């Protein structure tokens, strides 16, 4: 996949890994770079201005705590990319909050932002990615997914055992599992769907949950761009730049289908006709 001349949509682009990735992509010269963040455009004017010096950039705001807002983001992205989207990078994420928190949609906040919202956006844009030419969907996951269990009977932590790190890991396991399923049910062979652990990166997200150092956001951005540029590797999970085997849960067809059923039930208000 060539970054130069492509139309790319990057979520969570205003801080951390996303910001570094946006700057790296802009330097590569895409035809159009659409960046998403939760802030009003006036709050990220500096970043948007810097990106605009390098490429054609569109900034779109959406709050992932509101799934209807994510659906509006899909509409706005479609309008901003009338020729279709070549690359969709689902990077937006949050750490687990200190205590179990529900969104206005009634879902555990970490699961909604890190999993349900990317599913909504991807599903609503799936027909535009790789339509008539090669396309790529890159879902930013985490190596913490290896430590998680899905607990399909209690995805949203209604029972005991909640912790910020465990909620984050479960949300990323759900994303990797859904990615694996989507890769085997892709709508056409011109679109590849992969997931990536971008590295242990020193960001506010990491430090909100773990007392750990890490590599720079630029290190993660380089890993992401390397994976974006690859071709013909549908379904791959990357540990930074190395293809790896994900948590076996993510590869279990029965688990994949059960997660899909629960996901579609949860998203019925915003995806009433979803079939992904």
Describe the structure.
The protein starts with 6 loop residues before the first strand and ends in a 10-residue tail after the last helix. 38% of the residues lie in helices and 14% in strands. It has an eight-stranded mixed beta sheet, with helices on both faces. It has 276 residues and is an alpha/beta fold. The chain is built from eight helices and eight strands; from the N terminus they run E-H-E-H-E-H-E-H-E-H-E-H-H-E-E-H. It is globular.
Keywords:
eight-stranded mixed beta sheet; 276 residues; alpha/beta
Topology, pairings included?
Layout: E1 7-10, H1 16-28, E2 32-37, H2 45-52, E3 57-61, H3 67-80, E4 87-90, H4 109-125, E5 135-140, H5 164-184, E6 191-197, H6 204-209, H7 217-228, E7 237-239, E8 242-244, H8 253-266
Parallel strand pairs: 1-2, 1-4, 2-3, 4-5, 5-6, 6-7
Antiparallel strand pairs: 7-8
Number of E-type strands: 8
Strand content: 5-15%
Which secondary-structure class do the elements indicate? Answer: alpha/beta
Biggest sheet character: 8 strands, mixed
Strand ordering within the main sheet: 3-2-1-4-5-6-7-8
Note the overall shape.
globular
Average per-residue pLDDT, rounded, comes to 94
Poorly predicted regions: none
Give the proportion of residues in helices: 25-40%
Helix run count: 8
Please give the radius of gyration in angstroms: 17 Å
């Amino acid at each position: 996949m060539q970054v130069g001349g492509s139309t790319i949509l990057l979520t969570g682009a205003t801080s951390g890994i996303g910001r570094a990735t946006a700057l790296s992509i802009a330097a590569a010269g895409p035809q159009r770079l659409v960046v998403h963040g939760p802030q009003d455009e006036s709050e990220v004017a500096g970043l948007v201005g810097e990106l605009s010096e390098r490429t054609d950039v569109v900034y779109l705001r959406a709050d992932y705590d509101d799934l209807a807002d994510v659906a509006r983001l899909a509409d706005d992205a479609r309008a901003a990319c009338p020729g279709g989207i070549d690359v969709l990078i689902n990077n937006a994420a949050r750490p687990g909050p200190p205590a179990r928190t529900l969104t206005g949609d009634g879902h555990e906040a970490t699961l909604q932002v890190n999993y349900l919202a990317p599913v909504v956006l991807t599903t609503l844009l799936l027909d535009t990615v790789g339509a008539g030419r090669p396309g790529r969907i890159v879902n930013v996951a985490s190596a913490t997914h290896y430590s998680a269990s899905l607990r399909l009977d209690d995805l949203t932590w209604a029972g005991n055992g909640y912790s910020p790190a465990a909620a984050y890991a479960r949300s990323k396991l759900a994303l990797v599992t859904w990615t694996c399923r989507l890769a085997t049910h892709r709508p056409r062979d011109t679109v590849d769907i992969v997931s990536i652990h971008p590295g242990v990166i020193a960001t506010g997200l990491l430090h909100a949950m773990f007392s750990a150092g890490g590599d720079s956001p630029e290190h993660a951005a380089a890993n992401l761009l390397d994976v974006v540029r690859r071709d013909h590797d549908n379904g791959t999970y990357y540990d930074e730049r190395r293809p790896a085997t994900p948590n076996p849960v993510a590869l279990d067809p029965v688990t994949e289908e059960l997660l899909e059923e629960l996901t579609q039930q949860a998203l019925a208000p915003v995806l009433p006709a979803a079939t992904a």
